[in-house]
Amino acid sequence: MAGFRQGVAHAAREMRDLFPETPLQENEYLSRKTGARIFLKREDLSPVRSYKIRGAFNFFRKALAHGEAAEVFVCASAGNHAQGFAWVCRHLQRRGVIFMPVTTPQQKIDKTRMFGGDKVEIRLVGDFFDDCYHAAQDFAAESGGLMVPPFDHKDIIEGQATVAWEILTQLPEGLVPDLMILPVGGGGLSAGITRYCADSGVDTRFLFVEPEGAPSLKRSLASGKRVTLASVDNFVDGASVAEIGKENFRLLKGFGEEQVKLVPENRLCATIIELLNVEGIVLEPAGALAIDALKDLSRKEIKGKTIVLVVSGGNFDFERLPDVKERALRFEGLKKYFVFRFPQRPGALRVFLDMLGPDDDITRFEYLKKSARNFGSVLIGIETKDAKNFDHLRKRFAEGGWAYQDITENDVLAGLII
Predict the structure, then answer these.
(1) Which CATH number fits domain 2-51+159-324: 3.40.50.1100, 3.40.50.300, 3.40.1010.20, 1.10.357.10?
(2) DSSP 162-221
(3) Any residues with CB less than 8 A from the CB of 309 and at least 6 apart, and which?
(4) Using CA atoms, how far apart are residues 409 and 267, in angstroms rounded to an integer?
(5) Distance from C-alpha of 391 to C-alpha of 333, rounded to nearest angstrom
(6) Residue 114: C-alpha distances to residues 102, 215, 399 (Å)
(7) CATH code at 71-144
(8) Are strands 73-76 and 146-147 parallel, antiparallel or unpaired?
């Protein structure tokens, strides 16, 4: 126990040459909203806008200390791990090769190259991460390079645990969190934080948060062994992992599946928009997981409690903003999509428009096909200012004899035509 705590403390002090502590900020807005005392651990304010730099640095540091310095270090990642890896390569003046899928957005490639400078080489391989990962493994084996894993390694876990070391030193004197809410992807962050707190004798409760479309920890805890998900929704790209890490699960398997909350992706989008508009905080989807989980806790349950939320990252690609806003509106019931059986006669559109209220706006109108001589299938998107307005609209549609289907929550249809 003491060995792990001492290792984490030493790693945290070594990191100060790389970057200062990320702030632990008491958030007035969320505290007022929930009735609890909410602290945000702002990992989105690290040099690479995520906590991943910690594990990468600690892996490099210990490899060099143990004489495992390779000619080249290797990683496979299309996100935050690649950026943390690149930053450390430049800081330590070590050559690194980063494998990314061909489909990686150019913005992420450019940012990774900027962090690594002339010390990193980026290779684009395959359409999917698995192809990219296998190519990285093959290259490491052939070149004698050292693979730097994203989460499943004791040195990575130790590095991520420095988040807990900082939290406990930054909290006001005498204050111990009643609850820590942690986002989960591969499990490196949560494994490190929970172990450090346990070894330090900190009596706090933990709540883990995963995207609804990637519940690898929850499924594994329910089964009592690691489970590989058959499919994963990659929207929350920083936390969408098909299988929790082996070492990570070993450290987390003592928790109950009821301690894992699953967050709907569209609800998460509403939280991202809320924090951007109200607090001016730019969060990537994975970075908003812990904050979003507050919505599942009753005010009575957490009133007066001290709660620490780890904000894991802020690498948000603003080209995704229209999609995030769209999902947020759909979750809040302010935007819906319908397929109408539209009559092919003069004045039909005017009749339809007259049914809309003053706060209703058509955002999309598209003929899909003419299903009969006198009728056509029309996709109509409607946005409004109050979700209750759709109740009035449906009543008018029924009174007018309009045939339609609401496809807003139909993932198959919506994915094909919206």
Answers:
(1) 3.40.50.1100
(2) HHHHHHHHHSPTT---SEEEEE-SSSHHHHHHHHHHHHTT---EEEEEEETT--HHHHHH
(3) 38, 39, 40, 41, 180, 181, 290, 291, 294
(4) 13
(5) 11
(6) 18, 33, 60
(7) 3.40.50.1100
(8) parallel
Nearest by Cα to 164 from 182, 149, 152, 150: 182
- Whether 165 and 9 have beta carbons less than 8 Å apart is answered as yes
The amino acid that residue 267 corresponds to is R
**Which structure tokens are listed for 262?**
């699953």
CATH architecture of 333-417: 2-Layer Sandwich (3.30)
First-to-last C-alpha distance (Å) of the chain: 53
Record the tokens describing residue 177, joined without a space.
């969190």
Q: In this predicted model, what pLDDT tens digit does every residue of 340-355 receive, in sequence order?
A: 988 888 888 899 999 9
**Per residue in 119-128, pLDDT tens?**
999 999 988 7
- The Cα 118–Cα 109 span in angstroms is 14
pLDDT of residue 186: 92
Give φ, ψ of 224 to 5 degrees: 80, 10
